[in-house]
Amino acid sequence: MNRIINTFEHRYYSSAMLLFSVLYSCFFLINDDVAKIFQVLIILGSLPIFVCHRRVIFKDPMIKILGAVIIAQTLSWLYASAYLSDIADANPKIDRLAKLFSFFLIAYWLKGKISSVCMLWGGLAIGFIIGCMLHPNFTAEVSNALSGTRIDFGMKNAQFTTMLAGSSLLITSFIIYLYTTRFSPFTSLSKRTRTLIVSICSFSIVSLVFIAVVSQSRQVWLALAITSIFVPIYYALVNDGVNKKKIYFSYLALCIVAIGFSQLDVFQLILQRGFSSNQMLLTGNISALPMDSTGIRIHSWIEAIKWIKQSPIVGNDNTAIGQVIQQSDLFSDELKSRFSHLHSYHIETLVAYGFIGLGLVYLMYYWMIRSLFIQKNHQPEITPFLWFALAFTTYWFIVNGFETFNSRSMGVYVHNIMFAGFYTFYLTHSLNKQEN
């Protein structure tokens, strides 16, 4: 046993696992088959964690929430088996919510190092840009985008393309902030390395803004806009003695950027595309909503209320999600063949796992933020990461309100990569404290 522990805790082993984590982050959007290899290596290589550090790991609040999530999903399946036997699965599917906790393994290998977190997040942003550029029809896609056509660069669909661009844009902006404020690990870099970082970040910002605009997903633009409004507030919240002039200047800059974007032809096109539906929605004329992107969402959410009322506490299990639309009279056969999800992760979770399931997901978000507040007292240098965590969580909460990213592989990937970087500080401190 001691030999296993010594091998597991050897610095070469840790370096290899960190490398696998960064490569997984980078390759997920470039080559899924390669990424799966690194994912398997991470899972298998991390199993000794639950033996070597069992006294700490199984007391960790995030693991306790995971345990509660597994129980909640089992209860939902038992309810469905008893009262919805015609649609219930033969066995409980506990991975639908449990996979959101995969970040725990990567968080361990980051070892609370800021440089490792930046590499992991940077891998996501760089991998996304490269993935778009490697699209077989990349040139044609760019040409179509410049003519006003909505494009997705070969991602699952344009909704995911914009979500990934928005996530990558937040990451790149944060890394630029760390760089410009001469934050660790950017203080001891050579001039050549610093020049390379500036070049990569500048190219990334331009590319990501372009991709976010031409993929034309309104919910992501809305999330970025709201997040931008809250960013100065979050900054003042986590930093003591903030100069008010900086806050005012930040909002002035945001207004200028917002005015600039509002003048873009593609922005005007998107507003016109959903104008009639939004007008009906604001006037309360919901029954007359056409089955466009807005109408499909609103009608599916209304239909979901019936299922939520049926089992509000434990939900109806995951199979009920597809049945909301399939058993609805509002949707045509053509729409039923196209859609089996509800365009809102929050509502889907309520349908499947009730208020217990959704509450546990929110508890996971809360504890991640809370852990950074706690760790900030021990490591004041991680204050920017608390600020960024508040910003990213706001963004992620909103985009999942209009799509089911947390239920899809690309969304789960972004969630776990980001949460690994946020949670590593608390987890590493807890393990080191136990060892000492």
Question: What is the secondary structure topology, with strand pairs?
Answer:
Layout: H1 2-8, H2 11-27, H3 32-46, H4 49-52, H5 54-57, H6 61-83, H7 95-98, H8 103-110, H9 114-133, H10 138-146, H11 158-180, H12 191-214, H13 218-238, H14 244-262, H15 265-273, H16 275-282, H17 293-310, H18 319-326, H19 333-338, H20 345-376, H21 383-402, H22 409-435
Helix pairs in contact: 2-3, 2-9, 6-20, 8-22, 9-11, 9-22, 11-12, 11-13, 11-21, 13-14, 13-21, 17-18, 17-20, 20-21, 20-22
Class from helix and strand fractions: mainly alpha
SSE order, as H and E?
Answer: HHHHHHHHHHHHHHHHHHHHHH
What composes the largest sheet?
none
Shape: globular
- The beta-strand count equals 0
Strand content: under 5%
Helix content: over 70%
Feature tags:
436 residues, mainly alpha, 22 helices
